[in-house]
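Record type: ASSEMBLY
Status: queued
Input:
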Amino acid sequence: MVGSPRKGGNVDRLVQEVLDGAEEAGFQTEKYILNEMNYSGCQGCNYCKSAEVCKLDDDLSGLLEDIREADAVVFGSPIYFYLFSGQFKLMEDRMYSFIDPQFKSRLAPGKKAVIVTSQGNPDLSAFEKAADDFAEVLRFLGFEMAGIIRMVDGGSPDAVLERKDLLDQARSVGSSL
Ligand SMILES: Cc1cc2nc3c(=O)[nH]c(=O)nc-3n(C[C@H](O)[C@H](O)[C@H](O)COP(=O)(O)O)c2cc1C
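Status: finished
Output:
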């Protein structure tokens, strides 16, 4: 999934590269552009604690179902004010439906996860924490981290086109899922 509103931007292209690699390896893939979807944030109603699914019926319903079924998920977001984008965070909160009343994950363990981020700050280490914190969430949910790909955009949505190393890394992470 892509949490950037910039279609064809850095995160979008890197996520696509991971998906292309996965397709090469025989995976069937589905790409979700969060910014083009209509959905609400978690309402904190706790319906999911007894019903096992989110009560909200919107464009995230299918995505959440696909995550439950998937062998691997690619999570992409730009860094917005030290964190992942708002579009991404609303999706993340809805993953609360994957957690049971004993605060254990309902997801089958061992799904692979890839995280992709892009940032403006030329200091690549500045926002390592955002991806690392989300990786912790994913591990808690039972995912195995297959890779974290982070880049600096130098102010350009096309910066990734100059980063053959990262495009290659993304494709190779995808094909080794
Ligand atoms: C609202 C907003 C907040 C941002 N906050 C940060 C930030 O805290 N740190 C940073 O390095 N870049 C920040 N950026 C820059 C983006 O992270 C950067 O342009 C990124 O490469 C965008 O990825 P994309 O091309 O996939 O959209 C921000 C950009 C926007 C629009």
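Annotation: Residues 10-175 form a domain with the Rossmann fold fold (CATH 3.40.50.360).
Annotation: The chain is about 35% helix and 15% strand.
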